Amino acid sequence: MPARCGEGTGMNPFAWTARSLTDLTVGLAGWRFEGELPSDPRYVLLGAPHTSTWDFFLLMAVRFHWNMHIRWMGKHSMFRGPLGPLMRALGGLPIKRDERHNTVAQVVEMIHRHPRIVIGLAPQGTRNPAARWKSGFYRLMPTGDIQADMRVLAEFYGPLKGVCPEKTAPVRLADAPSETGERVT
């Protein structure tokens, strides 16, 4: 008797099919997945640089390849109309960026409420050109030494360029000195 799709993988047939199609598509584009997931059941997954709508599809590729349930934050207008339920089903959390809703505190509370959760976010905060990263992501995962942490992040993310390289924000937070020594706000 032939094996069913996903059998022996610990994945349901939908997850197995989504992973297979994702891996085929990524492979045809000349890319591959590398590395391993963190062993911690709760973590923040940074998507940087964020310069194109295509970044969403890359996030979904990561989600399907590793069979992860990622909760991600997106501009509230993405959740309007007929695509709203789909965006929520894919893990989306609508964010009104022009209003203050104490988003960081809400996400911290969500992390504490769930024993296993992955929060995906783009620290650049927009696909448009930006002078810096937003600091909310850092308040979700403080280790105590922000300068050392930002140096590590800059070493990893600094050389990377997005789909639209001219929109890539430098890896620094507000009030960090720029290359010219000026403060960025």
Main sheet specs: 4 strands, parallel
Order of helices and strands: HEHEHEHEHH
Note the gap between the termini.
64 Å
Q: What fraction strand? A: 5-15%
Specify the structural class.
alpha/beta
**Unreliable segments (pLDDT under 50, ≥5 consecutive)?**
180-185
Count the E strands.
4
> What strand line-up does the widest sheet have?
1-4-2-3
What is the overall number of helices? 6
> What is the helix content?
25-40%
- Average the pLDDT over all residues and give the rounded result: 83
Spatial shape: globular
- Cα-atom Rg, whole angstroms? 18 Å
How is this fold's topology laid out?
Blueprint: H1 13-28, E1 42-46, H2 54-65, E2 70-75, H3 84-89, E3 92-95, H4 103-113, E4 117-121, H5 136-140, H6 146-157
Parallel strand pairs: 1-4, 2-3, 2-4
Question: Any descriptors?
Answer:
185 residues, alpha/beta, 4 strands, 11% strand, globular, disordered C terminus
What would you say about this model in short?
The protein is of the alpha/beta class and 185 residues long. The protein has a domain at 40-161.
Tell me what you see in this structure.
- By secondary structure, the chain is α/β, with parallel strands linked by helices.
- Strands 1-4-2-3 form a 4-stranded parallel β-sheet.
- Helix 3 links the parallel strand 2 and strand 3.
- The chain is built from 6 helices and 4 strands.
- The radius of gyration is 18 Å and the shape is globular.
- It has a domain at 40-161.
